């Protein structure tokens, strides 16, 4: 995953009124560098509505360079990277308008859009703005600051790549059937679906609703999974609650993509005991690892968390009121060891809340 995420803020509704630009460079799936410029717009006019959005005032940029002066530095920073922005049509439009306004020839750009990427990666989400998506993914940032917006944009792209197990931006675009946008002195053409309307119509089964059309009221929209050639209906899809729990269980996908950014179990050693009901044991261990934790098979003085499920049949048959692991953890806690004993629900709530202390 190599690209540069950008974001513009503008002084007015004019596309050539850039007053802030940020660029965040990503290499091998990691943010490695960033740059941010305050820009004196030409003409030097600010709209009160725009100031209210981003908080940049005329006094803050009065002594800053105009875009034309900054362009050589900006161009060397962007290099030949594919540019990514959230609602990229706006940002590329600002870039092209500023180049034209300051009499700089526009080079050829390749670009993509995290709004388009997110729509194809998480189609079940109700909103695809930068703030709603970042909240859902657990990305904390200050909205309408160009640098923080660029970082959030980069992290959305990386979360989508993680979700789709994509090894590169090209691989992600291929898996999402998303073409790359292009821009230059001739204008711009944004990312679009690689599948034609005709192919989408052919792929739709007779009598099925058009893609994106709402399910009939009261139908309880269902997903299905193909197993050995037969279709098995799953439970009706549930909208997750604000804390990420759906009525049918845990929104594991959401927790996993959030985990890379929040990592609430960083450096902690975790032991699971008993029968879990909200997660399968393999899922719980995978979630722990993605949250920065390390799973242990037994309890020791180095253990930080012991997650206790219901007693299994062997423990019950032995007439015990708790598992050996829980008993060991309680003894260590009484001796002053800093081990915490949590229920499965408490463990999930801790991860959802992004607790780090």
TrEMBL record:
<dbReference type="InterPro" id="IPR013520">
    <property type="entry name" value="Ribonucl_H"/>
</dbReference>
<dbReference type="Pfam" id="PF00533">
    <property type="entry name" value="BRCT"/>
</dbReference>
<dbReference type="Pfam" id="PF00929">
    <property type="entry name" value="RNase_T"/>
</dbReference>
<dbReference type="InterPro" id="IPR001357">
    <property type="entry name" value="BRCT_dom"/>
</dbReference>
<feature type="region of interest" description="Disordered">
    <location>
        <begin position="180"/>
        <end position="223"/>
    </location>
</feature>
<feature type="compositionally biased region" description="Basic residues">
    <location>
        <begin position="191"/>
        <end position="203"/>
    </location>
</feature>
<dbReference type="InterPro" id="IPR036420">
    <property type="entry name" value="BRCT_dom_sf"/>
</dbReference>
<protein>
    <submittedName>
        <fullName>DNA polymerase III subunit epsilon</fullName>
    </submittedName>
</protein>
<dbReference type="InterPro" id="IPR012337">
    <property type="entry name" value="RNaseH-like_sf"/>
</dbReference>
<feature type="domain" description="BRCT">
    <location>
        <begin position="260"/>
        <end position="357"/>
    </location>
</feature>
<dbReference type="InterPro" id="IPR036397">
    <property type="entry name" value="RNaseH_sf"/>
</dbReference>
């Amino acid at each position: 995953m190599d690209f540069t995420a950008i974001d513009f803020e503008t002084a007015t509704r004019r596309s050539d009124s850039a007053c802030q630009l940020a660029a965040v460079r990503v290499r091998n799936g990691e943010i490695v560098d960033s740059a941010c410029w305050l820009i004196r717009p030409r003409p030097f006019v600010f709209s009160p509505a725009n100031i209210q959005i981003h908080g940049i005032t005329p006094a803050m940029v009065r002594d800053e360079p105009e875009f034309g002066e900054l362009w050589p530095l900006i161009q060397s920073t962007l290099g030949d990277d594919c540019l990514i922005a959230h609602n990229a049509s706006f940002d590329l439009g600002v870039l092209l308008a500023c180049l034209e306004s300051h009499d700089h020839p526009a080079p050829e750009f390749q670009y993509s859009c995290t709004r388009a990427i997110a729509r194809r990666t998480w189609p079940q989400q109700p909103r695809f703005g930068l703030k709603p998506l970042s909240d859902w993914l657990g990305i904390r940032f200050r909205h309408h600051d160009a640098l923080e917006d660029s970082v959030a944009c980069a992290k959305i792209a990386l979360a989508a790549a993680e979700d789709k197990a994509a090894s590169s931006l090209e691989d992600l675009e291929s898996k999402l059937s998303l073409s790359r946008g292009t821009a230059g002195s001739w204008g711009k053409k944004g990312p679009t679906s690689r599948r034609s309307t005709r192919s989408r119509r052919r792929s739709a089964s007779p009598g099925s609703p058009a893609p994106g059309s709402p399910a009939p009221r009261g139908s309880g929209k269902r997903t299905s999974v193909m197993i050995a050639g037969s279709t098995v209906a799953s439970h009706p899809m549930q909208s997750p609650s604000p804390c990420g729990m759906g009525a049918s269980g845990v929104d594991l996908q959401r927790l996993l993509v959030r985990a890379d950014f929040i990592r609430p179990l960083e450096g902690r050693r975790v032991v699971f005991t008993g029968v879990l009901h909200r997660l399968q044991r393999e899922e719980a261990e995978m979630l722990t690892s993605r949250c920065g934790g390390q799973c242990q098979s037994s309890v020791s003085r180095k253990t930080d968390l012991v997650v206790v499920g219901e007693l299994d049949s062997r423990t019950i048959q032995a007439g015990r009121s708790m598992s050996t692991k829980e008993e060991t953890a309680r003894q260590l806690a009484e001796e002053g060891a800093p081990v915490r004993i949590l229920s499965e629900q408490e463990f999930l709530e801790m991860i959802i809340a992004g607790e780090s202390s």
